[in-house]
Write a sequence for this structure.
């Protein structure tokens, strides 16, 4: 019997095993290839994805950004894929690749659409003080996070939760939603909602320049950016005595070298600082920002 759905799974996380388990319906659907981004090939996360693929006996290939793209797309066509699933994926998928999939590519976006489209929206939302974050499965289109919404929900964000803790909640909710979505899909009960793209915002990737804490911040904003940019992401920082100093916390913590009393707009707050970050490019950007 011919498979009705041949799935290509784009992922950078071995948690994708949960997606595969839901999709593997005998004689109906099968994940026929797992795809990871070439530019992250040597990371521990991708090595874990490759081990997962080997264990499940599913071919695993890398997605090039430009060089080798035609051969990559030819491989997908030869495998007869007609549905793509993007789970915790970090590389842009080219329009020419999107067009291969008759049923489209579904993406799990860790943010509300249209309010939080774009990159690093988990960090942006927490830094903005949001008390809930969206979990949205949608159809991928050329414009970022603009396609029809397939299913959505939210997860609460507690005042003390870090981005790392909230990310785990997003992944858990994403799997729960996918199970419902897949059941609806194979039973012909899927519904779609077009987002109003006149609302919301497309956020840029968070860069080092976005981590600056200055005296315009309230104490709450300092706490929020510390939660948003917790390890493994780059820590926020202040300029102290002309040096870029990462902020490790607002209470005693590991690896701090100095405590300073920092003037927020609503009063003083103690910051536990790490050693100077010697980043010439960042210093140049900060100087340009100061001179505007």
């Amino acid at each position: 019997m011919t498979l009705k759905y041949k799935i290509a799974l784009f992922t950078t996380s071995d948690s994708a095993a949960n997606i595969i388990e839901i999709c593997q319906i005998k004689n109906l659907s099968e994940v026929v290839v797992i795809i990871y981004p070439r530019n992250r090939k040597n990371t521990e996360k991708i090595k874990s994805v490759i081990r997962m693929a080997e264990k499940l006996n599913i071919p695993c290939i890398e997605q090039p950004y430009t060089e080798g793209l035609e051969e990559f797309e030819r491989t997908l066509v030869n495998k007869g894929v007609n549905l793509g699933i993007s789970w915790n994926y970090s590389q842009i998928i080219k329009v020419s690749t999107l067009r291969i999939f008759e049923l489209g590519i579904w993406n799990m976006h860790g943010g509300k659409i249209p309010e939080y489209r774009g990159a690093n929206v988990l960090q942006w939302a927490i830094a903005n003080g949001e008390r809930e974050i969206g979990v949205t499965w949608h159809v991928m289109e050329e414009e970022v996070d603009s396609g029809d919404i397939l299913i959505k929900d939210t997860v609460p964000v507690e005042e003390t939760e870090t981005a790392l803790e909230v990310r785990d909640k997003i992944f858990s909710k994403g799997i729960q939603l996918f199970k419902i979505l897949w059941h609806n899909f194979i039973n012909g009960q899927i519904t779609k909602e077009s987002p109003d793209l006149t609302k919301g915002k497309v956020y840029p990737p968070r860069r080092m320049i976005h981590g600056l804490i200055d005296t315009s911040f309230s104490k709450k904003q300092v706490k929020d950016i510390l939660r948003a940019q917790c390890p493994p992401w780059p820590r926020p920082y202040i300029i102290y005595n002309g040096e870029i100093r990462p902020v490790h916390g607002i209470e005693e913590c590991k690896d701090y070298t100095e405590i300073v009393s920092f003037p927020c707009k609503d009063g003083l707050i103690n910051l536990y600082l790490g050693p100077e970050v010697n980043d010439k490019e960042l210093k140049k950007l900060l100087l340009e920002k100061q001179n505007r």
Summary: The domain at 208-290 is CATH 3.10.25 (Methionyl-tRNA Fmet Formyltransferase; Chain A, domain 2). The chain has a mean pLDDT of 93. The longest helix spans residues 163-186.
